[in-house]
Structure formats: C-alpha cells, structure tokens
C-alpha cells in the first residue's frame, strides 16, 4: 500500500538508494514501510515540472480549480480507514483526533473550492479610460490577483493531515493557481504518500497538468534547502519550529532573487489572569487550563505555555488548584521519540533555571514516548531577567508568572516576543481597568481571546493565525482560513488591454458575475 | 526659511555638527542652505517617539486620520511657490513638473484620506458564535487590518515630492495608523524639510501625538542603516536603486526580528514590438518612443530601457526612425551631478560591451549635468549571453534587441529579470498570435501595457506598481494607489471580545456603516 516512493508529478519515483522508516510511538517500534529519500535529480525534476505546469495551471478558471480541490477531498475520503490507521501508527494520535483532523482537511479543501469558484478573492479592480481628460488622457487599467509561481510546502509534525501534504498551505496555493511541491514530514511520510496519491489521482481525473503537485521524501535537511534555493520556486510555506522556519527564511532571503517565506513557528500564547476573575473563580479557571495545557500532549502551536497574574489570594488559589488538577490528567503519547526527547530536554533546561519552582508534575511511570505534564511558577522579576524562560517548551508544560503589581504585568507583556495568541481572563467589566495591558498584548499577538483558551483554531474567514515574529515570519498574512490564499498571489495590472484577451475576471461583460471595484465603486455590473 | 535641522517629532533639532549642502544642477552650484546630519541620539529619539506615538495613533479613527492627511495636503499647498522654487533648485526639474508632482502628492494624500474615512479598507470580517454547535461550540471571531508599527520611509531621488517626505509611502503608512520616520533624500533635503514642516504643522493642528512624524537628514548611509536595524521600527519603504534597496532588505532580514521591506527598485521596462505593427507604423512608434525614452531625462523607474523586436524591414525602419528622432530632442538637466556622472559611467560601460552598436546619440555640447540621450542595438544572441546588457542604465538610454525569430523573442523575455512593466506594441489582432510571448512577459512584470508607453503611472486603485524581484522586493504589494496601504498592516482577530471594547469597525451595531463580511456574506447591516 505504501511504496515509500516520491511523487515527481504524476510518477512514483525512487532513484536514490537511501531509505528511512517512520516510527510508531504507541508501540515504540519502527513502522514496516521503507521511505526512499528524494534524490537531487528528483528535486530538480519536480521543480522543472512545477514551472512548466504553472504556465497552464495559473490560467485555468476558478471553477476548474474548484473541481480539482473537491476531487482531492473526495479521494482522501476514499482512502477510508486505511489512512486513519497509518496516521495513528505514524503519530500516536488517537482515532478520534485522526477523524477530526481529516474532517478539517476536507473542510479546508472544500472551503477553498468554494472560495475560488465564487471568484471575488481576486479583488478585481477596473478604472476605465478617460481619453479626453486634461492635461493628460487617462488609460484603462484593470487589476487582479494572479498566482506567484511554484510553492514549496513543508508539512507540520503535529498535523499530519490538516497542515501537511494536502493541508491548509497546499490547499491555499493550489487554489491560488500555484503548483505545489511538498517536502513531506519524515515523521509521517507514509501518511504523506497516501494523501499525495489522492492528490495525484484527483489531478489526473480532472485533467490538471503534470507537475501541479509533487511529494518529496527526506529525513534530512538537504532536500528542503535545495527546494528553497531553487530558482524555479517562488514561495515557501512552513509550519514548525523557530529554528527550522528561520533557517529557511534566511536561505530564501539570501537568494539572488529573494522569495517570500511564510513560516508559522513557535508561540507560548500568554494568558493574563485578572484579579477579580481569579477572586471569583480561580478553581474553574484552573480546571479549564489544566485541560488546555495537556490537550494533545501540549503539541499545539496555540498551547498556553505562559500564564501571568498579579500576586493575590486568588492567584494562590489558582496555582494550588492548577497543581491539583494537572496531575489528575492521564499523560498521552507524543508524536515521536524525538519530540518526546526534546520535551524532556527542554523541560529539564527550564526546570534548571534559577528561581523556577515546580508547582506540580505528573510523576507516575508512563509508557515510552508519553509526556509527563508539569506546571511551574516564577516571580515576575525572575521572568523578566531570564530570556530562557520566554522560550517555548513544546509539550504539556506551563509557567505561571506571579507579578508584583499591574505595572510589572504591563512590562512583562510588552517584553514578550511575538505570539500567535494572547488571552485575557477577566470578570465582566474588569478588563476595562486594564487598557494598557490590552494594548501591550495586542501589539505582541495575532489573535486576542476573552475568557477562553487559545487551543482550538476555528477555520473561518475571521481567523487570524499568524502573529509578530517569531510567531510567524510575516505577520501580514494568516496561515488559516481562506485569506491564507493571499500569501501566494500578487496583484497584476493590464493597461489598455484588448477586452477579448483579458481574463474573464476583468472583461467588460463580467462573465463570472463577480464583485469588482469599478471606478472605485463595488459592483457586479457589466461595463 | 530652510533651517537644515531635523524634525524629531515636533521639534527642530540639530545636535550634530556635520553638515552638507544640496546642489542646483541647473546652475551647477551648491545651494545656500546647510543641512545638519542627524545624530545617533536623534535617530533613537525619533524611534522612541514613534513607538510611543504608535500606542495612540494606531487607535484613532479613520475620520481623524483623514483630517490629518487633508491638513498635510493643505499645509503643503500653503507653502506656495517657495516650495516649487526650492524643489527646482534641488532637482533641476522644471516648474511645470514641480507643479504636476505637487498636484500628484496632494492627490495621493487626499485619496488616502477618503480611503480611511470610507473605512472598508480594514477588510472587517465577522463570524458569529454558535454555542450549540456539535461536537464543539463555535466561538465569535472578528478580524480587521491594524497598523504594523513605526515605518521608516526612504525618499526617492527622482520624485522629491510624490515619492519622498510626504509621498506615497508616507501617506499610506500614516493612513494605516503607522507613525513615519523619513530618512530624507540628501539631494533634496531642503524640499524635504519644507514638506516636513507642513506635516508637523498639520499634526499639531489636528492634535496628533508627538512622534507621529519625524524627518532625519543624512548624506551617508549610517542613519538609514541604524533606522532599519532599530528594534522599534517595524517596516521599511524604499524607492531607489537595486543596490540600495537590496542592502536595506538584507539588513532587515538579518535582524533578530526580521521586518518587511518594500523596496521599489530598478526596471528596464521591456517593450516588445510585433512585426505587423512595425510593418504598418514603424515611424509613429519610433516617434512615441523617442519621447518616452527621453522624458524627464529618462529618470523614471518606468523608462523603457529595452526594446525587443524580430528582424524585419519594419524593425529596420523603426531603428532608423528612432535614431533620427532621438537626436532631435533637446537634452535636459539631470537631478544631480552624481546622477549625471553615474549615467555617464553606466552608459560608457554599456557601450563598451562587445556587439553593441550605437544607433544614434545626442552629440552636441550640453550644459553641465545635462544628459545626452543614446539609443543602441544588439543581436538577440549577444543580449542573451551578456548579463551586463540586462541591467538598467538610469537615464535616457535605450537598447533595441534584434531577435532572429519568434522563438528567440520568447527565450529573451523568459530570461529577463523581474520588471515593473512590460509593453506590447501590436496590430489589432496580431497579439493573439503570440500567446507564449504574452505569458512569458506577464511572468516577469507587474503591469502589462498594450500599445502604449510604460512612462506615466496613473494613481488609481487598479494600478500595480511593483513587480517580481528586482523590480521590487515583494511583488505581492504595490507602491502606488490606495492598495499600497496593505504593506503597513496586519490582520488581527478578536475572539469572544466584549462588544463595547471592540473597535468601531467590528461592533455589532456597525457604527461606521462599513461593508463587512458577516458569516461569509458581504453586508453593511448590523448584527
């Protein structure tokens, strides 16, 4: 079922002789299948095919792209339980999560299908000519978004479906009209191949050009580096660590022709606990956060790794309750021994920091690759003076910072690195007493949450997933929701172009019936 | 009138003792006024003030920003003829051009005022909660564009008003809610100070926070480098050379926190002459292009530096006519001796390339700093094999490439670097015989023109000014038109946020009456 080969366009290919295996963290054994590393010539072939496919694929209609995207969703569904089994055996994630993530993946593909079929996303704008204008005649100008070129997608370790092979980045790029080359995540390369086979089947069924999609395997960094530096690659999407994302960003920035890299990276997702809220419901908040911290073994980019409050009886109650609740939760399996190992190392490093106190940690013996959750606490001063404490410990780890006063709370927030999210836990009107806290938090995050938890990323148009660096490399874009298509397009203007040669989106007769800005007025009317 | 001082927020300041002078290229003498270099501490003060001003300025309403922007325009107008005189004495550009460029500058400021007053630019999006959704409740999410932070603007040498102190970049950034620090162009620092005084007056009259605008003088590169590396600076706008833009881009990419740099750089703006058009009207095309090549001494980023055709009698006629016409045009003064000198050097370097033939050049003696125009020609093969010929010679220089056939024409276009514009000169239906030429050209440019000239950039919503690298550092944005505001903003989401604390753009009652995407439907209705 799993060949372990790469997809170079529509062809399975394995010309190199280096292979690797994926790992089942639940069983603590390697999976059976061998995955073949992509060779340099396969990388080049994939890039050449993508550049060639771009010539036609970038021009096909939104309706045709929608058919393709929906067919990808159908083909992934058709993989049935086999996909879910491989998913779990390569990630240790339970069947319920697998089903949920598959549903999200299909939903994203179909949402992008609807988005490009509806067609307004191209932001068509038309300014008609004024040949008699004085002192100079005005030309006819028409603008719309067009595809950037071949896009390389690096899948995420923690979302083998929704942020990997046919996940959000791929769906957005294909919707935009960009061929995609996936650098498959080595931890779930088998899952990746299965999904890639679905994409290829869909491409063939719907008549897409060969090269619109390729899937390359690699357990090292060279294939990714070569792709990011390849002159035919025009943009990069990445989900993963700060170190990995920054390395790719740096490579792309050093190219003769720099290209955009949208990397969604680390975040500790600060949660601010206001005093009245703590006074009134410390216990309930602690219970909610014990759940949020340990959800999915803490392996979410929106995991709340930092909780900040002002010293009070309420905060003490919260801390005590959190300590009690956190150890009641059964540990769960992490994605891979390497991730479990990194969690151990990073946790140990954090715990070794001077002034850090462990509130509670799960101590019973656990299965291999299972993560023992821990919550810790530290004084505001200590936190401010130790940058190590500002860094993410990927896993079920959280740090409660106890501030001396409101001023220190503000200072701490303003010194945080960029984050995906920030949360404020407040009593009904309490938050209005903290305008500076809210402002400071807003400056550091992409999404701000009132009385909730940061985990759980709704896929909808109003979701912003991406924040100031290092949450992402370019806070001007989102990685989730249909607006993520904007990462892979550029505006393009036609001046005095013959009507019959314009794309349908810009023709006088508006054959697609889309909403356009015509002489600065939004309308679906003809010209 | 001109103090030569820097504006550090609302205060004139000159703490350093190094000064420089601007130059009148028409008279070939230095201008009277001394300009004082900004000191390191002034740079830091400007950044500190901008970061402080950002806290309030980023939150004020679109209507208030509109008042500020319109007042800037009024104050620039109030400078009257004095401004135009200094403009001409620092650029050598004639009064008519000065008036035109001032009109454009005022028009841009007022267009952005209208844009933010209307308010739809924030792209408000609301997805309301579904507390009863199964299996998980849906949260309330609301998204809009917010300002990035303090922006540094590097003015252009060739547009002392429209792309400098209060030019397009500054107007867009102020409209977005970003304080602006201008690194004034040293060639027209007096003009810059006058415009800066107008901005400061407007800021004070309309009650803007101190630091919303600063203007720093420097004849070297250190001030600019310090600004781009300053932690409080969050984005950069630049118009100028590839070398300068790339250097700033590289600095910004190497920061601990990389920031976006939108640099609008060089372009040779290829013009493709199709055979039938040449057969029927070689003479008229030559005449038009002789004008376009020499317009403003060729000192436009849209100057047509490369003309490409297929060998034919028509092309020979065009070349002969262009040679005749180009020398009939009176040379004009360049902006500065350094620019005139660079033109001489680059022209000489180009002319020294093997296989390059001079078709015609103005040879009569000219005033100092005046540019002698030249048109040259080369075989397709020679052009393909010599990268030097692909580089811009900033000034009234153009190269006609004579291709062997259609295939070579396509190859040449596909090998070009990224460009702001590409033009196709075609007979009525001729262009439809060249789909590959059109596609190849589209991939290399940001704006494509049918039967026109690239010079003349209309300021309107449908204008795209920015193309694949090195035309600009990020082709996903434009430097001209109201959409250029998108460079300085990021999307931001509020989750379950109390209605009364939301910005007006996202409140249930839609107090601004803007168009919003509510549960995926565009509407101005309340919720």
From TrEMBL, chains A, B:
Name assigned to this protein: Aldehyde dehydrogenase (NADP(+))
The Aldehyde dehydrogenase domain, residue ranges: 17-467
* Keywords carried by this UniProt record: Oxidoreductase
Q: Which GO terms describe its molecular function?
A: oxidoreductase activity, acting on the aldehyde or oxo group of donors, NAD or NADP as acceptor
InterPro entries, from UniProt?
Ald_DH/histidinol_DH (IPR016161), Ald_DH_C (IPR016163), Ald_DH_N (IPR016162), Aldehyde_DH_dom (IPR015590), Aldehyde_DH_Superfamily (IPR050740), ALDH_KGSADH (IPR044151)
Organism expressing this protein natively: Hwangdonia lutea
